[in-house]
Specification:
By secondary structure, the protein is of the alpha+beta class. 39% of the residues lie in helices and 20% in strands.
Length: 306
């Protein structure tokens, strides 16, 4: 096997390797996954195990208005979300989807009525006429104080939440910057349902062989191409070409007498008609056959007698 043939075979193999590497590169999965899920509740709960699944990734929460997220202990977050309709992230079944679980709000206990000193005095039958209106007003709790204290979330946030974040329409949290072991709770500021949640998770892709495959395939393909070009193009020097042309013009050596080459050249020169040096017999019109062992004719006998 010549060097040129070896180069052609290597080029064919290189072309196959290059095609395989390009196909593998085109079908290579992304270096990270982006699973997502739809949300239709105003509260979203993301446990610490879900945060730990996205090292180096992000958590993206989407809504129609302002979004606020808090970080706190799991027990405190569960207790806070118990009275609200919420959605809890439960896992990542595929690289495209997140699994969720709906959490319905539990009924809040109704406030129980407590007896006041004035009512107990009325029940005992003692007169209360001497009670001043100012004292009665101070003994009765203000109707506006209770709703304000219940509606204000500032003391509650200060008590159970460790950190908070805000965003308008979209809130993106870096997983590495979130507190470890805490639950993330996100809610819409106006109480409207959130629209979705997505995670960016780094994934390990075994693609270290793709790039070397393409490089080796490209190198071998170039070697085969060079061998093919050298096969189709005459790269001999001008002197060698002249010598070959001159050698082609030199006359060939004479053929051996009586040999096959001599007869073939004679047939070619006469157009296929055999050439005979004898004279045609006028009586028969045929050419006499002469040979070394041919019998002597009458003329020869007379010459011998003379």
């Amino acid at each position: 096997m010549t060097l040129r043939t070896t180069a052609l075979i290597a080029g064919a193999l290189g072309l196959l390797l290059l095609i395989g590497g390009l196909i593998a590169d085109a079908m290579r999965p992304a270096a990270f996954g982006t699973p997502s899920a739809a949300v239709d509740t105003p509260v979203l709960i993301i446990g610490p195990e879900m945060v730990a699944m996205a090292p180096g990734g992000t958590l993206t929460i989407e809504g129609d208005g302002e979004i606020v997220a808090y970080a706190g202990r799991t027990a405190d977050a569960e207790e806070w979300a118990a009275s609200r309709d919420a959605t809890r992230l439960t896992g990542v079944p595929t690289w495209d989807d997140l699994s969720t679980e709906a959490v319905e709000a539990t009924a809040s206990p109704e406030p129980t009525a407590s007896a006041t000193p004035a009512s107990s005095a009325d029940a005992s039958g003692e007169p209360t006429a001497d009670a001043s209106p100012a004292a009665a007003a101070s003994a009765t709790p203000s109707a506006s104080a209770t709703p304000d204290a219940a509606a204000s979330s500032t003391p509650e946030i200060a008590d159970i939440w460790r950190d908070s974040w805000e965003g308008d329409g979209t809130l993106t949290l870096e997983a590495d910057s979130l507190p470890v072991g805490l639950t993330i709770v996100a809610e819409s500021a106006d109480g409207a349902p959130l629209t979705g949640v997505a995670m960016k998770i780094d994934r390990v892709v075994n693609d270290g062989w793709v790039t070397p495959l393409k490089w080796w395939g490209g190198v071998l393909a170039v070697v085969g191409l060079i061998a093919l070009v050298s096969l189709l193009v005459d790269h001999r020097g001008a002197g060698s070409k002249v010598e070959t042309a001159v050698a082609g013009r030199k006359p060939a050596a004479p053929a051996s007498p009586g040999g096959r080459r001599e007869r073939r050249e004679a047939m070619t020169a006469s157009g296929g008609i055999p050439i005979v040096d004898g004279e045609i017999d006028p009586a028969t019109g045929e050419l006499p056959v002469q040979g070394d062992d041919a019998p002597a004719g009458p003329t020869d006998e007379r010459e011998e007698r003379a």
